[in-house]
Design brief:
By secondary structure, this protein is of the alpha/beta class. The chain has ten helices and eight strands. It has a single domain, classed as TIM Barrel. It is 30% helix and 11% strand.
Length: 327
């Protein structure tokens, strides 16, 4: 892949400082049953990086030490980690809300036949990838057969109460554009998704998150190869809205990679941009703060590491892991 960070470092993006830490977003590993062109993690079936047991054990301790209310599990496919279910159970027992960033097709992988039932029993909030409500576009982005499996998975989740009013089981969908363009207006697109998925498949869900594609990793490299990288960056910068700065995820979230190293967000993690130093207990071998540092140090008030890719979270409606800002 093409090196992307050198293209982003010389940036005029505004400075941001952290608020109280409310969400710990943990990448359990890069192994995934899919390999998508827009994936900023470059995940896939051949990746072997997975979080070890010692680091897994730190997660509940940090949740308690920092009074963190949300554990956001991602990957790859986080469900493929052997400790995914025990970790969910421990966090849920602590009263922490658990979010599973789910690609839907994982529900039909070997050993995952009861995954949907497990998620429902634990009250896990599911944020599911579905880049369109048409077969052609989904399969073009994610591989042949992905759409049919995704629809079957959504129906399975609906049957357990997910996305149903008053069930308490929240099901959110994620939209990504197929190429170097901003996503459509989120509320209008959500109305289209709700109408089409109900009419054709009887599917219900709570909210649609419309996310801009980040110009990093696999997607960024593809833009460079096609000569579209600088045009896409110009698009993001031209549509930057300063009012979106107040709602970006890096103000109250910390991202943890599979080795336990900390970044301000998942995108910085993939670029190798570490969190600012926390006291004097950083991981000296890796030269960056580690999950264990959060046991003793509060990151509130620290500055956020920014570069040009940050415009992807403030352009247009703004987006991060939670879709359009202020909606």
């Amino acid at each position: 892949m093409h090196p992307i960070l050198p293209l982003l470092k010389a940036s005029t993006f505004p400075a941001i400082r952290r608020n109280t830490l409310t969400t710990l977003q943990v990448n359990l590993g890069y192994r995934c049953n899919q390999s998508c062109v827009h994936c900023h993690v470059n995940a896939g079936p051949t990746r072997t990086e997975m979080m070890d047991q010692e680091t897994i054990e730190l997660i509940p301790a940090v949740l308690k030490a920092r009074s963190i209310g949300v554990l956001d599990l991602t990957g790859g496919a986080p469900e493929l980690h052997a400790q995914f279910r025990p970790l969910v159970e421990r966090a849920s027992a602590m009263g922490v809300k658990v979010i599973d960033r789910c690609n839907l097709t994982i529900l039909f992988e070997e050993g995952q036949h009861d995954l949907a039932q497990f998620l429902a029993a634990q009250g896990v909030e599911v944020v599911a990838s579905l880049p369109c409500y048409s077969l052609e576009r989904v399969d073009a982005q994610r591989g042949e057969g992905t759409f049919d499996k995704s629809i079957a998975a959504l129906q399975k989740l609906n049957a357990l109460g997910y996305g149903k009013p008053e069930s308490g089981l929240h099901l959110h969908l994620v939209y990504n554009p197929q190429g170097p363009a901003l996503p459509p207006e989120q509320n209008a697109l959500q109305a289209d998704y709700k109408r089409e998925l109900m009419a054709h498949f009887g599917i219900e869900f709570n909210t649609l998150f419309a996310l801009a594609n980040m110009p990093i990793q696999r997607f960024g490299s593809m833009l460079v190869s096609k000569g579209q990288f600088h045009a896409y960056m110009d698009l993001l910068k031209h549509h930057h809205r300063p009012e979106n700065l107040g709602g970006v995820m890096c103000r109250d979230l910390i991202s943890v990679d599979w080795q336990g190293r900390l970044s301000d967000c998942d995108f910085n993690q993939q670029l190798g941009l570490p969190l600012a130093a926390l006291g004097d207990t950083t991981d000296h071998e890796q030269g960056r703060p580690h999950l264990r540092d959060l046991l003793r140090h509060d990151p509130a008030g620290h500055g956020v590491r920014v570069a040009d890719h940050c415009y992807g979270c403030t352009a247009g409606q703004g987006s991060s892991c939670g879709g359009a800002l202020g909606t």
